Amino acid sequence: MIGGLFIYNHKGEVLISRVYRDDIGRSVCLTGFTGRWRNAVDAFRVNVIHARQQVRSPVTNIARTSFFHVKRSNIWLAAVTKQNVNAAMVFEFLYKMCDVMTAYFGKISEENIKNNFVLIYELLDEILDFGYPQNSETGALKTFITQQGIKGQTKEEQSQITSQVTGQIGWRREGIKYRRNELFLDVLESVNLLMSPQGQVLSAHVSGRVMMKSYLSGMPECKFGMNDKIVIDKQGKGGTTDDPGKSGKQSIAIDDCTFHQCVRLSKFDSERSISFIPPDGEYELMRYRTTKDIILPFRVIPLVREVGRTKLEVKVVIKSNFKPSLLAQKIEVRIPTPLNTSGVQVICMKGKAKYKASENAIVWKIKRMAGMKESQISAEIELLPTNDKKKWARPPISMNFEVPFAPSGLKVRYLKVFESKLNYSDHDVIKWVRYIGRSGIYETRC
Amino acid sequence: LKVINCCVWDPSGEIFELKAELNSDKKEKKKEAVKKVIASMTVGKDVSALFPDVVNCMQTDNLELKKLVYLYLMNYAKSQPDMAIMAVNTFVKDCEDPNPLIRALAVRTMGCIRVDKITEYLCEPLRKCLKDEDPYVRKTAAVCVAKLHDINAQLVEDQGFLDTLKDLISDSNPMVVANAVAALSEIAESHPNSNLLDLNPQTINKLLTALNECTEWGQIFILDCLANYMPCDDRESQSICERVTPRLSHANSAVVLSAVKVLMKFMEMLPKDLDYYGTLLKKLAPPLVTLLSAEAELQYVALRNINLIVQKRPEILKHEMKVFFVKYNDPIYVKLEKLDIMIRLASQANIAQVLAELKEYATEVDVDFVRKAVRAIGRCAIKVEQSAERCVSTLLDLIQTKVNYVVQEAIVVIKDIFRKYPNKYESVIATLCENLDSLDEPEARAAMIWIVGEYAERIDNADELLESFLEGFHDESAQVQLQLLTAIVKLFLKKPTETQELVQQVLSLATQDSDNPDLRDRGYIYWRLLSTDPVAAKEVVLAEKPLISEETDLIEPTLLEELICHIGTLASVYHKPPSAFVEGSRGVQHKRLPARAGSCLLYSPAASHFMGAGLGVAPAAMPASLGGAPAVGGGLGDLFDLGGGVGMPTGSYVAPKTVWLLAIKAKGLEISGTFARRGGIIQMDLSLTNKAMSVMTDFAVQFNRNSFGLAPAGPMQVLTPLSPNQTIDVSLPLSMSGPVMKMEPLNNLQVAVKNNIDVFYFSCQYPLSLLFVEDGRFYRQVFLATWKDIPNDSEAQFQIKDIHLNSDVASNKLQGSNIFTIAKRTVEGQDMLYQSIKLTNGIWVLAEMRIQTGNPNYTLSIKCRAPEVCQFVYQCYELVLKN
């Protein structure tokens, strides 16, 4: 299991160090605290943080000790072990650790960590025992790790805390009350594309998330339904004489999905229904991935021409491919330029375009664009003559955007709330649903 | 201690100030002071001098302050053991606190203090906390047992904590169950032979129930533990798989990977024609693909694991090539891994796409990645014959870029392509020669020289080219020197007239001026060959070369099997067994996949059939008389304390391979082999050698009926064709589920091996020790009664001659082969060892071995209800003791 956990700043100075196992740095056993971990801590600093090369692996083995690390802005989190631990678990834990810290004090920065080090130690003590991850749901943790000291807890309150931390529904406490029961549901999709210069789709997929904010009283039982092809087909067979072609269009094929731990997986496996008792506040209910029948909101058509050895002519056309009534926003097209670019002239029909020398790219921004429209940019790039034999690698043209629909075609069919003990019904809950499609890695080779 | 305190270097008076603050009356000030102490501790300052002052703050009802003091204690107690005792009272008191959070905190912290004197005081509070009414305290106490075990294993066993921990597996609270499982698994790892976890269908059922209810981390502990279980038959295996598959949709990637591990392992036992087997295969692909949309670090872990899974079961991901396409912004470690998997998945169906991608990658920035991409193109050419031509032309395009490292890498792979497809692509040689000057890496130079030598007759200026390398002969690396030597000799054999001078020059350079023995030796061999018999030289140097195989980088099958058992862990990331990077006893055990179907030997139909023939004693009858009654008769009773066995078993003896099938009798196929029992699995280790001129493929194996129903547990895994003069080692797992027929001799086995040429038959004999099971330890109380019960005429006596071992070493050796010494008695300088053996079909064998000090001849008496086995048991004794 995890033997120790360290947090470093970008210089490699230790901000937090918590040793769980004696085997870490056992070889050097000097006096007291410093001697015990000095060895492992230094090894990581020298070999990873101060290494000249870019990181070649997130797992490093130095002197029979394994270091796992993740980086958040310029802070390094490292877990150390001498055993054959579950590597996936260690990384999941490190991410979780970041989530918990963010939930308690916001951004993970050197200053925040220094200001909250007592709290971090307290958290580390609670969520990692002898290197075994324990309940790390912030909802539960916040009931008893508060930094204000727990005063005057009654016996009932104490046992409520412990039963929640260890219980089956570790993510929600009892006795939550809201005057207005509300639910916010965001379907966030990122659409990924890799297209050849000729316009052939090399790969495309949508990775989506269903984010939920729930403000519900009591212990509500929820049921979530979407236009999942498997479910719709099953119902179609059930009896209604729906036109099969029609139902085929309305449903989508989900390649795979994963769920928040509140969802009853065995029920999904057997009946493909998504039922759960939700955590309070914001959380990610599910993630999914689709590859079939994706609506690609934009098409990029590049044209690059080399004119002699010192000039490039670039023309890029973008076409929007969705209902004219909808508006795409925050559109950005990034056209890479060679390293030996000396000057660029750009003309675009719409939006603003600029050559950014530091990024080696022309960045073309358009605030809004309706569906079924087309726009164009052309640029002349002057090059310095070089002796470099190596050809320019021509990185792909990438795009960013946001559209108000789900490119996968996913639709929320229902979200039902049942709370038998309290006096509110599904109709009393106010529900909000929103679809946002964003570009993931949306690239066209040129 | 006082002296030390005075000596602490404290220039700013910081320690002194803190000391004053710690002793302040005001609670807030105290707390702030402790915070400052912890802050100093974190940055590495030595604040151990404040130990007594900090410990004084421990008695408080402020939980936050208490936690801080505990944190300090955990770090410094070891360096100040005497003072740490001061804290014990508070700990013990806190373990009785009405607040469960405080009770848990106390027991959690106490376990982290590694001071012997304190551990003694820990036992009583821990015992109470393990039975606490509050689950939060129990789950903390469960982990504490593991902590205590790490400090003092003996103490944990003596105090009976392991049993309490086992009881917690049936706890009503899922988190308690999960932590107990985690703690037990870890403790069991350091006791490889103990049956600590005692996994049986009932416990498995409990674990599967808890799996649905506990936290994500708990699910990981439970799944990792489940993976160590060996289901009894394929039905049980299937039902566990069914209950584990829902985990594949969990948001936590570690849960998914651990579930994949369980499924990959238990799938081994399912018959391939089962519908469910196909369903399961289909269910595995989507979650594996989903792992690739996780954060980069997890993607890396997933890809390393997918690399293993693809090698074990290529069918799972064969349609998913596209998801492994590299993205421009992937971190380099993700890119390199994806590339590896792309090559593994490359096939005729997708090769066009793959090649287009690889060409794209070869123009990227990162040198390592580009090199690997170029190498990948070469590997595709070798793997997919239909694509070879396209690959070669792609490589030529890349050579035209003139990027130095691309050119060099391309030449190295083109050499391999020439090896695979001789006399097919010589037209490209001219292009290669143009780049001769730019090659500065030994591997590329060596490859180029090889090509020139190999095709010397078609390159007009081959002599000039090779001569140009000769100028700086001594500055070249050994690899290049060797190639140059061979290439010039080849050239000479092909064009003897013009190159005599050149060959003489290189021979003298190699033999006279070099201090590299390999080079000298090779030089001398060529020289003598050329001077004595040029025709023979031609036959040797220009001999037809065996074809190279496509999958040279596959992980060796036994290692692959072991790594599959470690999916998700560091071992699967490093692609190394745990023993390669873990110190001490942990992880030294090698895990293995279960054998397909019917591995539950005792209850297999074959076994009962054999017993039905009137042999053997029903196995279930044996342990029945377990009662506490001391053993009857003689002085035996007080000697029966050998139960635990002496030291570690040395492992079973495996005879060296002997030739079973001669090449002349089998159209060039030679088979040698031996039998082994490894971790309860019977294996037939075979070496197949191709002594014919053509490639052999399509191997299969079958056994004739035999005395114990031995049968191959799966098909023989010969993945690559066997080229001429190549030898492949295969391990064939055997099961006991085959048809039974008594053979003469009893341990005779008739085998049929088929390949693309013909079917061949041979027979071999296996040592009976192959069938000695791991749980063959007889209950000593019933040993004597059974001994008496078996009629004397079934007793056989043998002499084992010329053994120079003392009785302890002998019994230790025997135990390695599952011959268990259950008692020892010494009478008048004569050691009597009482031993028991159980065969896979439930037959018990009892033995008495007499060893006289100074006499190298042992006397062995064997009793068994099936007297025909005695002779073979004796052979095993002799085999084991003499080796």
What integer value in Å does the Rg of chain A equal? Answer: 27 Å
Helical proportion of chain B? 40-55%
Low-confidence stretches of chain B: 1-8, 597-650
Main structural class of chain B: alpha+beta
Structural class of chain A: alpha+beta
Q: What would you say the CATH architecture of the domain at 771-882 in chain B is?
A: 2-Layer Sandwich
Shape of chain A: globular
Largest sheet of chain B: 5 strands, antiparallel
**Unreliable residue runs of chain A:** 26-37, 238-248
Question: Quick check: average pLDDT of chain B?
Answer: 83
Strand line-up of the largest beta sheet of chain B: 1-2-3-6-5
User: N-to-C terminal Cα separation of chain A, in Å?
Assistant: 48 Å
Rg of chain B is 35 Å
Kindly identify the CATH topology of the domain at 771-882 in chain B: TATA-Binding Protein
| Tally of separate helices of chain B | 36
CATH structural class of the domain at 771-882 in chain B: Alpha Beta
State which percent range the strand residues of chain A make up: 35-45%
Short key terms for the protein model shown above:
heterodimer; A: 446 residues; Immunoglobulin-like; nine-stranded mixed sheet; five-stranded antiparallel sheet; 9 helices; 23 strands; globular; B: 883 residues; alpha+beta; 48% helix
Give an overview of the whole structure.
Chain A is built from 9 helices and 23 strands. Helices cover 21% and strands 40% of the residues of chain A. Chain A has 3 domains: 4-27 and 36-136, Beta-Lactamase, CATH 3.30.450; 182-236 and 249-293 and 407-444, Mu homology domain, subdomain B (Immunoglobulin-like, Sandwich), CATH 2.60.40; 298-403, Sandwich (Immunoglobulin-like), CATH 2.60.40.1170. Residues 1-8 and 597-650 of chain B have low confidence and may be disordered. In chain B, helix 28 packs across helix 29. Chain B is α+β, with helices and mostly antiparallel strands and 883 residues long. Classes of the chains: A alpha+beta (446), B alpha+beta (883). Chains A and B meet through strand 2, helix 1, strand 4, helix 2 and helix 4 of A and helix 3, helix 5, helix 7, helix 9 and helix 12 of B. Chain A: One of its GO terms (biological process) is intracellular protein transport.
